[in-house]
Amino acid sequence: MSPRTGETIAFDNVGLRYGTDREVLSDVSFTLYPGSFYFLTGASGAGKTSLLRLLYLAQRPSRGGISMFGTDVITLPRSRLPAFRRRLGVVFQDFRLVPHLSAFDNIALPLRVAGMREADLAGPVSDMLEWVGLTSRAHARPATLSGGEQQRVAIARAVIGRPDLLVADEPTGNVDPEMALKLLRLFEALNRLGTTVVVATHDVHLLRKVPDSLIMRLDKGRLSDPTGALRYPPRRQMSDIDADAPLPRDGGEF
């Protein structure tokens, strides 16, 4: 899957409340440009997970507009949601692995849904298992994996289909610093191939590891813009991106 030139993701004055409670997100407006890398930061309870749920179409806003890839998703019929979601990769904070499937089969799931032939699955899934350091755990089911191993399987599953948008909620929270940096390099490699990446994190050290990244900060449901991420397109344009290049093996450099 190759990201489509010029297609952005835009929130316009979005508000979100659950039931009759106060808004958890208020007047949120921004544009995510194709092939850009964003960190979403904020204290616990600031609304990061709620914003991500809107991005990966698990939640509709209470007010405002959201367009993704040229489509108004507020009015998108439910019948079109599954195909639309296949353009997204999501790393959930609670992993959401399929319990009866092995690590290999969990990672292969997006490729099978996309219609890849079984004969063609082994190569890319094995490469991804090698990247996240789980080759020896390929046939293990989630219940036998540690929290960090489950997180790595969840990340591999999210990126293997080369999504147009990758959304990751605290993706390095259960791994050691060395693996955290390796996983961040995987996100950066995918980003260099044209995927728009949004990583929610409270780890300020990660923010310094991706030089071209932009930072969005949530405070009590409102978005601030310390790096100008919401006002200007990223320096790197889609014309600079080779969307058909393979992911480098084992965290390799470009």
Automatic annotation (TrEMBL):
Which residue numbers delimit the ABC transporter domain? 9-245
Q: How does the protein associate with the membrane?
A: Peripheral membrane protein
What top-level branch of life does the organism fall under? Bacteria
Localization of this protein: Cell inner membrane; Cell membrane
GO terms in the biological process aspect are: cell division
Pfam families in the cross-refs: ABC_tran
Q: Which GO terms describe its molecular function?
A: ATP binding; ATP hydrolysis activity; transmembrane transporter activity
Q: Which CDD domains match?
A: ABC_MJ0796_LolCDE_FtsE
According to its UniProt entry, what is the function of this protein? Part of the ABC transporter FtsEX involved in cellular division. Important for assembly or stability of the septal ring.
Subunit record text = Homodimer. Forms a membrane-associated complex with FtsX.
Protein's name according to its UniProt entry? Cell division ATP-binding protein FtsE
Q: Which organism is it from?
A: Allopontixanthobacter sediminis
